[in-house]
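Q:
My hope is that you can spare some time for a protein that puzzles me. I hope you can help me see how the letters and the tokens relate. Thank you; the sequence and its tokens follow:
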Amino acid sequence: MTYLAGDIGGTKTHLALYIEEKGKMECVKEEKFPSKKYPNLRSIVKEFLEGQNLSVAKACFGIAGPVKKGKSQATNLPWLIDAEELKTELHFEKVSLINDLEANAYGLNMLKEEEFYVLNTGDPKAEGNQAMVSAGTGLGEAGIYYDGRRHYPFACEGGHTDFAPRNDREDALLRYLRKRFGHVSYERILSGPGLYNLYQFMVETKQVSEKEETYKEIASGDAPRLISEKGLSGASKACSQTLELFVSIYGSEAGNVALKMLALGGVFIGGGIAPKIMGVLKRGDFFHSFTGKGRFSHLLEAIPIKVVLNDRTALLGSTYYAKHLM
């Protein structure tokens, strides 16, 4: 049987083709595509499958956006993805769409110990619900319900909830972003574009000084990458403080999600940003903000926190879903 798995994000679309023989799955092709250079998902899949003399039985795509009745309007792409249309036009037997964080959550079970970095060991006997929070092109969140025997991932769109400031600087940040966007969600801060929003706030409101040439370089280049690099190396004080604020708010929101999901079994930090800024994540601001919830601080201190290091986790989860749940 042939399976097609996909991780569909605002920046890239990651596809993999698997063949199952005698119970063993073999990946015969894998490729990444720049999402914004294509008019729709169908055109990417057609290009990917070109020259492959295989008939796809089941396809599962993890989409960065809400999925409703087999359709999804990708949050950071002008694509309306329809499972039934893909099935008909690509001549697949079955097609399923799931949320990308749901796919990530399914993929957790397929990872090895060394594919996680432990930020907090927590209670070694911890069990219960889990949660996943992933900052990348956007901010994804998911719950993982535990029934006493198994974990069941479910999608949510918590990244679009209202940003709640905790101090005077964050009050000023909210006012700054509200002038630009009106509604200020956590995704406006905890994402690649959000990192640049934070940097602009820090410099433009004079929270910290910045060299004019550095500001222009970041404004005209790959801002999230440059901010991370200059912040981690210490080349820019503004970038360093931007990363510190980003990590502090990231920890706070991860703690919010942990409380809402009562994720006593653990919180997983996914997405492309966390592995690239581990030097800042490990310093303690993330955990301090995660646990800084007043009367519930002690409960949060016992929750294991792990950073997911494998960038194929959503793809693995889509593969798992296609094989076992379709």
Observations:
- The radius of gyration is 20 Å.
- The chain has a mean pLDDT of 96.
- The CA atoms of residues 228 and 277 lie 7 Å apart.
